[in-house]
């Protein structure tokens, strides 16, 4: 059968754009369908605007604390209108260059505008046009989830989808949710001079990260003026004039909070409702479209990648999954989706993570089979020089010092974590003469801590009775 296209990519965000580039380099006839703006969540509501805001927030924080570095700046003001204007300029620059539809057309990709839905086997409708395709790749991403809280809908709220459409920061802010988005925005917006309260239902923030590090980060936010409330159960939201009132309880004690705006950051859900997946037998689950290890759905000609597949909701994993899916379409069985995925919460300091935590390792291998090594940033010369000593590195290994997980709270932790991703992938052990990936770290950098921590692990191993006996035996043999 002759098809209009070899592959139709539905959704042109992080996964979709990578998929289009990979497909054209494979030389296959490609179309991509987008109902809104090219660039998806990452460009318009996620990574780009949030990190641009955080850059302005860090500049304000640095100026505010300049006296600690021997610099007197006097009074200064934060103009949040200009901050939000800068966010828009950065987005527009990317949209006009890297994320421009014409760039993909020049590659030979057909750009189909409109909402896409499956019609029948190998048939996809985009807007009022129906096309046939050998394969389809769904990359429709995700959207913010709003919990069912009495009065929330009536009072109105912000999410990451409309926060950056404001022209100026709100006068005060209540953040509902202590995940990555909530934590980043709470710190960033507070640093811009906005009174900020963060409410988290669990007993700590960032539940997927190392608890000892998230506790330090929570204290850092509190020291900067963010009111961080954990174990917060929200009962009701109501609006009184220009104020929004949230009532609930913390550890059984009734509490009330109020602010001019509420930011809901309580998770995300897959964007799959309008795809008519049932028409082609694509099965879904709680997290989104169900895929196998090669990202194929229950319909053998349909694949899914990125947030809509519900595996890891990060831009970098979406891109990796998209490339993997394309390879498996045209070179069947060539690769599996990545399972070791690092991530970073871009607070200041950053919190980075790859592999498993100490608790996960103990559950999997048993408490006696797991070793944990820690390095406090207070002992980092770079941290001391920059006045950034609030942080820690935690390294989890098995009983033979094979690296299982790495957790870093430090400036530039997102840049540091990649060497541990490589170490875990390669099965590296901390042995005498081997320091993680056996790479010399530049001094003085925060990565110097990697060598220092690895050294501590090696010294501990050298003190073990077994190695002491082995060294003594070696001496006896050669004496």
The level of helicity is: 25-40%
Which structural class should the secondary elements be placed in?
alpha/beta
From the N-terminal CA to the C-terminal CA, the straight-line distance is: 79 Å
How confident is the prediction overall: mean pLDDT? 93
**What is the CATH top level name of the largest domain?**
Alpha Beta
State the major sheet.
7 strands, mixed
Write the CATH architecture name of the largest domain: 3-Layer(bba) Sandwich
Report the sheet-strand fraction. Answer: 15-25%
The figure for the number of domains is: 3
CATH topology of the largest domain, by name, is FAD/NAD(P)-binding domain
How would the blueprint of this fold be written?
Blueprint: E1 5-10, H1 14-26, E2 30-34, H2 40-44, H3 47-64, H4 80-96, H5 101-107, E3 110-113, E4 116-120, E5 123-126, E6 129-138, E7 142-144, H6 152-155, E8 172-176, H7 180-191, E9 195-199, H8 211-223, E10 227-229, E11 232-240, E12 243-250, E13 253-259, E14 261-264, E15 268-270, E16 284-285, E17 288-289, E18 302-304, H9 315-330, E19 343-345, E20 350-355, H10 358-365, E21 370-376, H11 381-386, E22 392-398, E23 403-410, H12 413-425, H13 448-462, H14 465-478
Helix pairs in contact: 1-9, 3-4, 3-7
């Amino acid at each position: 059968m002759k098809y209009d296209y070899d592959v139709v990519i539905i959704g042109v965000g992080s996964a979709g754009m990578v998929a289009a580039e990979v497909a054209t380099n494979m030389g296959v006839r490609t179309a991509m369908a987008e109902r809104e703006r090219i660039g998806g969540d990452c460009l318009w509501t996620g990574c780009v605007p949030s990190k641009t805001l955080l850059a302005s927030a860090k500049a304000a924080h640095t100026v505010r604390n300049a006296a600690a570095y021997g610099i007197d700046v006097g009074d200064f003001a934060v103009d949040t209108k200009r901050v939000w204007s800068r966010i828009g300029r950065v987005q527009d620059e990317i949209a006009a260059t890297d994320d421009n539809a014409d760039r993909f057309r020049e590659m030979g990709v057909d750009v189909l505008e409109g909402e896409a839905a499956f019609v029948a086997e190998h048939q996809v409708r985009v807007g009022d046009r129906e096309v046939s395709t050998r394969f389809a790749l769904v990359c429709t991403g995700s959207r913010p989830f709003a919990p069912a809280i009495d009065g929330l809908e009536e009072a109105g709220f912000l999410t990451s989808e409309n926060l950056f459409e404001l022209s100026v920061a709100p006068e005060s802010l209540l953040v509902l949710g202590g995940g990555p988005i909530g934590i980043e925005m709470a710190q960033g917006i507070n640093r811009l001079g906005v009174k900020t309260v963060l409410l988290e239902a669990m007993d700590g923030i960032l539940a997927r990260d190392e608890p000892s590090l998230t506790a330090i980060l929570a204290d850092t936010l509190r020291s900067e003026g963010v009111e961080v409330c954990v174990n917060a159960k929200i009962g009701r939201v109501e609006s009184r004039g220009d104020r929004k009132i949230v009532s609930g309880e913390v550890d059984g004690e009734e509490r009330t909070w109020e602010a001019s705006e509420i930011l809901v950051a309580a998770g995300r859900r897959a964007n799959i409702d309008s795809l008519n997946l049932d028409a082609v037998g694509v099965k879904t689950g709680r997290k989104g479209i169900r895929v196998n290890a090669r990202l194929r759905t229950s319909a053998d000609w349909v694949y899914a990648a990125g947030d809509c597949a519900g595996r890891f909701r990060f831009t970098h994993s979406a891109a990796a999954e998209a490339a993997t899916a394309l390879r498996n379409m045209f070179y069947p069985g060539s690769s599996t989706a990545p399972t070791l995925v690092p991530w970073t919460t871009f607070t200041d300091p950053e919190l980075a993570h790859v592999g498993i935590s100490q608790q996960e390792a103990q559950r999997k291998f048993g408490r006696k089979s797991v070793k944990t090594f820690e390095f406090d940033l207070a002992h980092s010369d770079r941290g001391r020089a920059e006045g950034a000593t609030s942080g820690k590195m935690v390294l989890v290994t098995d009983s033979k010092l094979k690296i299982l997980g790495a957790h870093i709270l430090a400036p530039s932790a997102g840049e540091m974590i990649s060497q541990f991703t490589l170490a875990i992938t390669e099965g590296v052990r901390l042995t005498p003469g081997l320091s993680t990936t056996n790479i010399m770290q530049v001094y003085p950098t925060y990565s110097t801590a990697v060598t220092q921590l690895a050294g501590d692990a090696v010294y501990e191993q050298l003190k073990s009775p077994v190695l002491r006996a082995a060294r003594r035996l070696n001496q006896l043999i050669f004496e």
